[in-house]
Amino acid sequence: MLVEVRRSKELPNPTRMGPSEVIWTKVEEDYKNNIMSKLRVWYGWAKINKIRKREAISVIFENGKQSPERTDNFIRKMQNTVYVRHQTNEEAKDAKDSNRMFTEYTIFMDDKVIRNSLDFALWVNYQADKNYVSTAELGIIEKKLRTAYMKSHILYKEPDPNFAKIQIRKYSDKRKEPVQLELFAASDFK
Predict the structure, then answer these.
(1) pTM, rounded to two decimals
(2) How far apart are CA 72 and CA 106, in angstroms?
(3) Of 89, 87, 58, 88, which Cα lies nearest the Cα of 74?
(4) Where are the beta strands (DSSP E) in 20-164?
(5) For residue 124, how far is the Cα from the chain centroid?
(6) Which residue in 69, 90, 141, 158 is deepest, having the highest Cβ count within 10 Å?
(7) Dist CA 29 CA 96 (whole Å)
(8) Where are the beta strands (DSSP E) in the chain?
(9) Rounded CA separation 113/108 (Å)
(10) Cα–Cα dist 182/40, whole Å
């Protein structure tokens, strides 16, 4: 599919791409853009094994195309997938410069900031994607991640009911000053 054109007098302003003076043509650019718009993103929970010992939300971005069987096999090894979407053009721009087939971002549940709070982990994932994904789709992703987690952790409950609310207020983009909250009502001390 790559098209190579040699320098000739009919072509205006050829770009020099090494000793063979290759010019990237419109056909090749259209081909590259078509592939980039079809890259996918997988959301799920990381599979725990002898290498990966920490539970985490796993978001895997595809950086290039290979056979669908190999891609699906790799993703099945890495995570329990709950949702798949296509990358936006803005997200696909990062894939052009990558030298790996996949890029994974994880949100560890036992992180010292998250502290096993499912609500806060899902909020962090929401904040990471809010500039690229519609609010409706983010709601679907959050619901599917929560459902999958609750199916595998039947007895789960939030470690502290106020923790996620405090952390969300603390790390919210809108607040610049430190957060001071009253955790107890004045009537509790009478």
Answers:
(1) 0.73
(2) 19
(3) 58
(4) 23-24, 40-46, 56-62, 79-86, 102-108
(5) 11
(6) 141
(7) 12
(8) 4-5, 23-24, 40-46, 56-62, 79-86, 102-108
(9) 10
(10) 44
- How far apart CA 175 and CA 7 sit, in angstroms, is 57
Q: Which of 97, 127, 115 is nearest to 32 (CA)?
A: 97
pLDDT (tens digit per residue) in 129-159 = 999 999 999 999 999 999 999 999 999 998 8
SS3 per residue for 76-94 = HHHEEEEEEEECCHHHHHH
Radius of gyration of the chain (CA): 23
Structure tokens belonging to residue 138: 């983010």
Closest-CA residue to 167 (of 86, 104, 158, 156): 158
Q: What is the pLDDT of residues 77-90, one digit of tens each?
A: 999 999 999 998 88
126/129 Cα distance (integer angstroms): 5
Residue 3's alpha-carbon distances to 18, 24, 150, in angstroms, are 15, 7, 51
Q: What is the dihedral of CA 108, 114, 115, 116, to 10 degrees?
A: -60
